[in-house]
Structure formats: structure tokens, C-alpha cells
Specification:
Elements (H helix, E strand, L loop, with lengths): L5 E2 L2 E9 L3 E8 L4 E8 L7 H16 L8 E6 L5 E6 L3 E3 H7 L6 H22 L1 E2 L8 E4 L5 E3 L6 E2 L17 H4 L8 H16 L8 H10 L5 H4 L5 H10 L11 H17 L16 H37 L1
Antiparallel strand pairs: 1-2, 2-3, 3-4, 4-6, 5-6, 7-9, 8-11, 9-10
Length: about 325
């Protein structure tokens, strides 16, 4: 590992995470005394020009996107010794995967809706501004800033332009891949990412993913199997929300919502409805059961009795006051 190494004025302090060909370090800019994240290509790939191109391609994609919910690219370069690096903003917080496994108490419905709406807004921007799709939506690629719970989308290594032809190679994380990706057809628009988001929301809200098994079993299940309805996995969830998430998991891309704007609009409307009825909602936003008619009738009778008691007390006090006033005149 390169902790303690200085690269272009950035001192690598500790490892934040690693992938198949890169390691991300927490780094401090020595002149500005400010923290950044620096991704370094593993040395064994430094002579692989194709891998080097892919590495810098990620930095170029990130540099094109300026959005409050996307990790911002700062700079990229190659040292005299051949180290390829990519400097990004540092996000002080946890990934959603860390929250899922280490801090499940934070995984409330308001939290899930908030980060989902932020993610939809970021990916809607990426598509509409640059026709970019992410291709690897999963909890590990979503950072949550500790200071304000702002979501930051990271790891654009698989991102691409939807209009280009795909080779059919599978790189996406098997647990979250869309059926068309699992079948080797690739993804040409946002509907593949929308499916992956649906799998992720299902897993976070139900505590289990819609499918499980080996890589081969997951690929087959995404293509062939219908997932159990989300409401059956989490009966406390709001039925409209559960039904909407189920629609994101449609096998055919044409049967899913066709834009992130639609996803954001629907989730925002559901959140507004649930917040407006917070007093009658359970922990997952599901309406509390209606009271029995007999219980309602007892409540109405009690209300009438209370009003009658108040009226009698007012009349008694009025009489006492009148008698007192009359006695004072004599």
C-alpha cells in the first residue's frame, strides 16, 4: 500500500476502499491542509494501456458532471514513476452498504426516501446533460455525508454513454444487475440503472434482496424469475410505495419507468403524502388500522359527555358570580 506516499502535493494517509484495479486513499493536500480522496491505479496495471485508458476515462466522466449529489472530480495525472491517480472531493461519512451492515438503525423509511430522491435527481442530471448511465448502482457506491445526510454518488468506472453499442461483457455487480445485462445484451438507457435501484431499495427496505445465490444463479434469476412482492417481504411498508418499487423490477425495460424524473416525481409524491399523514402512520408509513364502529361510538359519547360537563360548570360559575355580585350591592 502507498500510505505515507506523496503524489503531486497530496499525502496519502489511509485506505478508504479498493476495487478490482484501483485503491482509494484519504489524502491531505500539504499546502492547503485540506482532505481529498485520491484513487490510484494498482501498480500491476500500470503497463496495461487499456486499463490506464479506462482509469482516466472515469476521471473524464466525473469531470463532466457537476451536481451536488455526485462526487466531484478535481484533477488526474501520472507521476514520473508511472503511478496513475485521480483526485476527488473527500466525503466524510459512510457508504449506504456500511449503514446497511453496521448501522441498520439509520435505515428508516424517511432516510431511504431522501437518499433515493437525491440519487434519482443526480442520475436524471447525468442522463439529460451528458447521456451518461452509471451501470453499477449499489449501496457501496452511495456515500452519505455525515454533516447533513447528503448523498454523493461515486465510482463512475463503468459509466458510459447510452447511445454507444455494448460489447455484451458483464461487469456490473451480479446482485443488482438488470435482466438485459445479465443476458449479455448490455444497457442502452436509464432503465437498467432504474432496475438496479429497485433491487437496492427492495434490499434496504425488506432486509433481504429479491434474489440470492451464486453469480450464475443470480444471472438466471434476474432473467427468468419474478421476485416476491416487496409487501410480502415487508408487510409494514406503504402499499403504494411497495407496488412502485415492484414496477422497477419488471423484466422488460419497456415496462419500467422510462426516466429518472418519473422515479423522482413518484417518490416525492409518496413522501409528501406520508409526511402529511405522519400522525396516523406507523414506522414504515403504513396507515394505522381503522377503529371498530363500537369504539368510535364510545368515543363520540365520551366527547358529548365532556362538553355537557363543561357547559354545566360554566353555568354554575355564572350563577355563583351573579349571586356574589348581587350580595356586594347590599
Amino acid at each position: 500500500m502507498l500510505a505515507g506516499t506523496e503524489i503531486d502535493g497530496f499525502l496519502l494517509e489511509s485506505v478508504l476502499g479498493s476495487g478490482s484495479y484501483g485503491v482509494v486513499y484519504r489524502a491531505r493536500h500539504l499546502l492547503m491542509d485540506k482532505l481529498y480522496a485520491v484513487k490510484v491505479l494498482m501498480s500491476e496495471f500500470a503497463s496495461d494501456e487499456e486499463r490506464v485508458k479506462e482509469f482516466f476515462r472515469e476521471s473524464k466522466i466525473a469531470a463532466r458532471l457537476e451536481h451536488p449529489n455526485i462526487v466531484q472530480a478535481i484533477k488526474a495525472g501520472r507521476t514520473e514513476t508511472g503511478l496513475c491517480y485521480f483526485v476527488m472531493e473527500f466525503v466524510d461519512g459512510m457508504t449506504v452498504e456500511d449503514i446497511r451492515t453496521k448501522a441498520p438503525e439509520r435505515r428508516s423509511l424517511p432516510f431511504l426516501l431522501s437518499i433515493s430522491i437525491q440519487l434519482a435527481d443526480a442520475l436524471d442530471y447525468a442522463w439529460n446533460s451528458c447521456r451518461i448511465i452509471h451501470r453499477d448502482i449499489k449501496p457501496g457506491n452511495l456515500l452519505i455525508r455525515e454533516a447533513d445526510n447528503r448523498l454523493k454518488l461515486a465510482d463512475l468506472g463503468l459509466a458510459g454513454v447510452g447511445s454507444v453499442n455494448q460489447s455484451g461483457d458483464i461487469f456490473a455487480t451480479p446482485l443488482y444487475m438488470a435482466p438485459e445485462v445479465a443476458a449479455g445484451l448490455g444497457s442502452r438507457d436509464v432503465t437498467g440503472d432504474i432496475y438496479s435501484f429497485g433491487v437496492m431499495f427492495y434490499e434496504l427496505s425488506a432486509g433481504i434482496p429479491p434474489f440470492s445465490g451464486s453469480v450464475e444463479e443470480l444471472q438466471r434469476a434476474h432473467v427468468e424469475d419474478l421476485p416476491p412482492p416487496l409487501l410480502s417481504a415487508n408487510p409494514d411498508l406503504d402499499p403504494e410505495l411497495a407496488g412502485f418499487i415492484d414496477s422497477l423490477l419488471a423484466k422488460s425495460p419497456a415496462d419500467r419507468p422510462q426516466s429518472w424524473a418519473l422515479v423522482k416525481e413518484r417518490l416525492t409524491a409518496i413522501r409528501s403524502r406520508l409526511c402529511a399523514n405522519t400522525g396516523r402512520k406507523g414506522a414504515q408509513g403504513r396507515p394505522e388500522p381503522e377503529k371498530h364502529p363500537a369504539e368510535k361510538e364510545r368515543g363520540r359519547k365520551l366527547e358529548v359527555l365532556c362538553i355537557a360537563v363543561v357547559v354545566v360548570l360554566v353555568l354554575v360559575l355564572a350563577v355563583i358570580a351573579a349571586v356574589s355580585f348581587r350580595g356586594s350591592l347590599f
